[in-house]
Amino acid sequence: MSPVPAAPLWAGRTLALLGIILVACNLRSAVASLSPVLEMLERDIPLNATLVGALGMLPPLCYAVFGILTPLVTRRFGLEPVLIASLLALSIGLLGRGAAGDAVVLFGASALSFAAIGVGNVLLPPLVKRYFPDRVGLMTTVYATAMSLSTLVPPLVAVPVADAAGWRVSLGEWALLAVVSLVPWIVLAVRETSERRAAAAGAPAEPEAHAPGMADGAEPEELPEEPEPAGLRHALRSPVAWSLMVVFAVSGFTAYSGFAWMPQIVADIAGATPAEAGALLALFAGAGLPAGIIVPIVAARFGRVRLLIGIATACQLTGAAGLLAVPTTATWLWVFLLGSGPLLFPLSLVLINMRTRTHAGSVALSGFVQSIGYIIAAAGPMLTGGLHDLTGGWTGPLVMLGSACIASALAGLVISRPRYFEDDTGADAGGSLRSGRAGARALRRR
């Protein structure tokens, strides 16, 4: 595959750029806006501890289920129509949460919202590959940063809005963002339909200013022909898919476990006050923000995948070891290092595009990696809490969190090699590639 010439970021694809950023801003707001107002919500809709726990399990489970279904639907209807449908569903779900009168409606609307987000999770990497194949690293940084902001902002505004206008407005207001996000994608879809009709009628159509990966006068990306479209069945026998899934899963496992238990961990082993524990949790979450900005660019531009995985492994091991050995000394440093381990998350997102040749391959790989990865990540808080209850302390859970990165380091040995997901089709048991030489040369140039 010949390298795609870099074009100006805004040239001919402003709507796609805006659309991708807006979609990314929707992917965490539904989750992050609920817990801060849960106490207010329970005054009108009583929820026991089991129901609250089930609400907490809904996001990763929906992400997993719809990570599997999205590639199948996308192959039938296309990227943009499926994305538009998911944004419509998200708008309805968010409005439904705000209008819920009982637990059944609340759960149904929440499930619809999280299902729509699961579709968006899978589609964002292929959309970057479709519209920005020459700027994969930069665009992954852009939308990973937008996702981080969509995690940080809702908790800051949820309670003030709820105090001023009620929890229903606080939850339902995010539907406006989903509706606004529809605009660029509807315009792109209408434009593409008009061009297709003009071409079918034999009328000269204007050049596609929004064509994926093209600026004015740029050549389209050259893609090799595939013997068959890459799909989920292909992913099941792909070493690239399984290895990337492990890296993604370890990142999510560590992050979800830390979000759930870090305040209690530092309170018990380091004597942190509630205010200090909250600040350390914010530090744990914020450690991933600089990684989201830097990692995709380093991976795409310089190809230092093995180095990045090594850094993540070292950070996670050191952070866990510090909390085990000297928890009261430089607690902030150990928490920050443990929170830096999930830099594997933005690395996984950019590798979905770096390790695929085609849009179909990117959709299939994204769906496989995120569906199974989120199932494993969802088990993190439960396993961490269960191991704490079993052992009566935090040594076992911290050893588990620290050693989890060993699995990602081993998987990194596979995904750091220059090979494509599509090249695993027809690979023998040893994983030899039928067309690996050309792919290796292209990947080294990246």
Chain-wise SSE layout:
Blueprint: H1 14-26, H2 29-32, H3 38-44, H4 49-77, H5 79-99, H6 103-131, H7 136-165, H8 167-172, H9 174-200, H10 232-236, H11 239-270, H12 274-286, H13 288-302, H14 305-325, H15 331-340, H16 344-354, H17 359-391, H18 395-415, H19 436-445
Helix pairs in contact: 1-6, 1-7, 1-9, 4-5, 4-6, 4-17, 5-6, 5-9, 6-7, 6-16, 6-17, 7-13, 7-16, 11-12, 11-15, 11-16, 11-17, 11-18, 12-15, 13-16, 14-15, 14-18, 17-18
Counting DSSP E segments of at least 2 residues, the number of strands comes to: 0
Largest sheet: none
Provide the CATH superfamily of the largest domain. Answer: MFS general substrate transporter like domains
**For this structure, what is the CATH class of the largest domain?**
Mainly Alpha
Shape: globular
- H-E order: HHHHHHHHHHHHHHHHHHH
Q: Which percent bin holds the helix content? A: over 70%
Mean pLDDT: 80
Derived from helix and strand composition plus strand pairing, the structural class reads mainly alpha
Strand proportion: under 5%
Stated plainly, the CATH topology of the largest domain is called Growth Hormone, Chain: A
User: How many structural domains does the protein architecture include?
Assistant: 2
By DSSP (H or I, 4+ residues per run), the number of helices equals: 19
